[in-house]
Write a structure and sequence with these properties.
This protein is mostly helical. The protein contains 14 helices and no strands.
C-alpha cells in the first residue's frame, strides 16, 4: 500500500504545481491581457470559475459540472490533466491483477476494454454523435469524452503494454542465450526475426495512418456517414490507434530499427516528452490570445 500511495503522490506533485499556476493566474490575469471586438470569447474560458473553482482545486473539473460545452465554462481544457490523474488512481488495480496472475490481468483488461467500447457505442447511438466534428450533435462530444470512464481502455491497454515491456527488460538481463530461449521463447524469436519486425512496424504504421485518414470524408461532410459507420469508427478507432503505436514501439524495444530507439531515447524526445503536459495547458491560452484580438478572428 505504501508503494501505491507513493505512486499517487508523485503523480499529483508532478501535475499539480503548473496546473494550479495556469488555472489561478489565468483566471486572475488572462481577461486583462488582451482587447478586441471578440475578446469576450476569451473571457468565456473562465466565465464560470466563480461558481466551480473548487472543482478545479480538487481536480474534478472534468466531472463537475457533468455537462461542459467546448470553449466555455471554467478552465475546460484542463481535463487532459485531471483525467490523467484520475486514471492514475485506477492504475494500481490493473497492476495488482497482473501481479496476482498473468491470465487474470489479461481477462480483466479484456473485460474492461469490451465494456468501455460498449459504453462508447451506446453513447454514440444515444446522442447521435458523428465522426465529423462540425455536426450539430457533436456539441455533446467534448462533454462526454473528457470523462475518465471513457478513457479506461487506454489505461488498460497501457498497463498491458507495460507488462510486456517488463518481460522484455527481464529478457535483456539474461546473458546466457540458452536461458533466454528457455524462459522467453517468443521474445527471443521476435528479437532475432527481421521479418517479424518489418511486419510489426508495417502493421502498426498502417493502423495509425488508417485512423488518421479514415475520417476525412466525415469531416468534410459530417452527415455523409451512416449512424452504424459513425458508431463503428468511435468503437474501433482508439484501440486500433493505440495498438498501432504499441506495435511500432515494440519493434524498437525488441531490437529492431535501432535508429528508432536511438531517436526516442535522445535528449530532444526526452525534453519534448517532459513538455507535453505543459503545452496542453498553455497552448489554448496562446491560441485564444492571438485570435481573439484579430478583427476577423471569429472567422480564422
Amino acid at each position: 500500500m505504501a508503494d501505491v500511495l507513493k505512486f499517487w503522490a508523485r503523480k499529483y506533485l508532478r501535475l499539480a504545481p503548473l496546473y494550479y499556476l495556469t488555472f489561478f493566474c489565468g483566471w486572475a490575469l488572462f481577461p486583462y491581457v488582451g482587447a478586441g471586438p471578440i475578446w469576450y470569447t476569451a473571457n468565456l474560458m473562465y466565465d464560470e470559475c466563480s461558481q466551480y473553482w473548487w472543482a478545479q482545486l480538487l481536480m474534478i473539473g472534468n466531472l463537475y459540472p457533468m455537462f461542459q460545452a467546448p470553449n466555455y465554462g471554467c478552465f475546460f481544457w484542463g481535463w487532459t490533466i485531471t483525467t490523467d490523474l484520475q486514471l492514475a488512481l485506477l492504475t494500481p488495480l490493473f497492476v495488482v491483477m497482473y501481479i496476482k496472475r498473468e491470465w487474470l490481468g489479461h481477462v480483466f483488461v479484456t473485460v474492461v476494454t469490451l465494456g468501455q467500447l460498449a459504453l462508447i457505442g451506446w453513447v454514440c447511438y444515444e446522442y447521435k454523435l458523428r465522426v465529423g466534428p462540425f455536426a450539430a450533435e457533436d456539441w455533446y462530444l467534448f462533454s462526454m469524452f473528457q470523462k475518465p470512464f471513457f478513457k479506461i481502455e487506454s489505461l488498460a491497454m497501457g498497463v498491458t503494454a507495460a507488462f510486456f515491456y517488463m518481460k522484455v527488460l527481464r529478457f535483456r538481463r539474461i546473458s546466457d542465450e540458452a536461458t533466454r530461449k528457455a524462459e522467453h521463447p517468443w521474445i527471443n524469436k521476435v528479437h532475432q526475426s527481421t521479418l517479424c519486425h518489418v511486419l510489426m512496424f508495417s502493421t502498426g504504421l498502417a493502423l495509425v495512418l488508417a485512423n488518421l485518414l479514415a475520417g476525412h470524408s466525415a469531416i468534410a461532410s459530417p452527415y455523409s456517414w451512416s449512424m452504424q459507420a459513425n458508431i463503428s469508427f468511435y468503437i474501433v478507432s482508439r484501440p486500433t490507434y493505440i495498438l498501432g503505436i504499441y506495435l511500432i514501439l515494440f519493434v524498437f524495444f525488441t531490437g529492431g530499427f535501432t535508429f528508432g530507439k536511438a531517436f526516442l531515447s535522445g535528449p530532444l524526445m526526452r525534453a519534448m516528452g517532459k513538455l507535453t503536459f505543459e503545452a496542453a495547458l498553455i497552448t489554448p491560452l496562446m491560441i485564444q490570445l492571438i485570435y481573439s484580438q484579430l478583427p476577423n478572428g471569429l472567422f480564422v
